[in-house]
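ok trying again, last paste got cut off:
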Amino acid sequence: MRYHRGYLERYWKFLYSLDAFLFVVAIFYILSLVIEAGFVLTPQQKLILGYFNLFVLGISLLELLTKFALSSSKSYFFSDEYWDVVFTSLLSLVTLYVVYVHFFEKGLPFHPALLITPHELHLLLFRTVLLINVLIQFKEFNKIILGLKITPSQLLVGGFFLIIILGSLLLSLPHAATQKTSFIDALFTSTSATCVTGLITLQTGTHFSWLGQWILMGLMQIGGLGIMTLSAFMALLLMGRLGIEGRKIMTEAVEIKGQHQLYFLLKEIIVFTFIMEAIGTAVFTWRFYPLFNNFSKALYFGLFHSISGFNNAGFSLFADSLIGFQKDPYILITMSLLIILGGIGFLVIADLLNYVTADKKSHRLRHLSPQTKLVLGLTTALILGGTALIFFTENSGEFSKLSLPYQILNAFFMAVTPRTAGFNAVDIGLLSPATLLTVMMLMVIGGGSGSTAGGIKVNTLGVLMALLKTTVLARSKAVIFERTIPIFTIHKAIAVTFFAALLTTFGTLFILIHDNFPFVQTLFEIISAFNTVGLSMGITSQLSDFAKV
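nice, full thing came through this time. structure:
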């Protein structure tokens, strides 16, 4: 138990009660942030919320001082409450700074490049640090969740369902949009963002406000990284370790066989994700700046598209996605690389990093796993094959307006995005039937296991190809890279493919009966939705509420 070391037994009950009280305060503080950001408030109501912020700050300081006073081992206190001490100290410094600016520096200059005033910036800084400090109170709740006697699949489905509902409620807030958002549209958008699908019924860049777009970024990040990955990382960060059940759940969730690699893998996932998104943001900001002539706006658009790209979400703040940049190789190639890196799988990336950094003096073996070879090989083949097919089927169609280099560039981009990202640099509705069929095949296959991509996965395709080869050659065992494929893996690949085909068929049939759209357009939208791609031929926004659900 948490307090059974470092504290006298007579204080245990009080400390656990204090934790429960702080957990309730944390929930109310988060609700206060939602109310302040999402609703139109009177000055008096804003003042009350401001006092509540100070109350939460005071409670946080009092809690830390109380635990320090009651601890029998000060070294254990600083070890157990490390993050509390760090963020509470930082919060105190930020508070003093905000108070100083508010009372003594009222006339701070406002630069037009900033999206918010200096006063708002200081308050945002204060609330951000206070929010982090409050979220630390959820560490015990996080531990309980990871210790539940449920399967990874149940936890994943339950977690995504909860996030989708919360996202729907947040997107329904008055301040989250420029006009009223129906709950069905909010639910559809939240589901699309959390499942990194990218299909929309409302224009992201014009319908949703600055707040609504930040909510979408959060949903995309959570959906891309995965709820369990983020939960486990926070547990490792705040508590230093996971329980046995938590480790078991996580090893299954991120598809690794050994538990001893879990901590380093989670760190690599988080760090690599933010590094790639930072690089993407930098490139996009550079290319967007001439368009807006405003650094803050260019940075904001760059960040949004980088997060959307790496997490294979497909959301864009531009009404026509990336059609306006079909002659910009920096935008299209950078976006393609983000999509590919996000779509090959974190285990493959970790294996590649290990391969690149290993040397003869290292104890690590310098070789790639069969899974990495399979994913990289099939990904390369699909991209190159898709590029060639799309180039030849569309060079006399939509691509005829472009010069040869731009035709190849857009064919490459069109071969990358259907594998789950959903961005488009050409009008999908104007593509030839042969190109549409190619795109639909790429959407069905998707990316690698353990990635932000959708589809049945290239790993599944590899297993099915090995099974086909085994059947044709009348062999008894399916083999990939001289490794026998377990029968369970074969059954799983067949089941996934059958399930995907079944849902796609019934989904298409349902829309055809209920909304009566053309067959090709309906099939395209269903494949895009089920495989979390986000490409659209333009009928999603016209669907009835029943069909959207």
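cool. Residues 1-138 form one domain. Strands lie at 479-480, 483-484.
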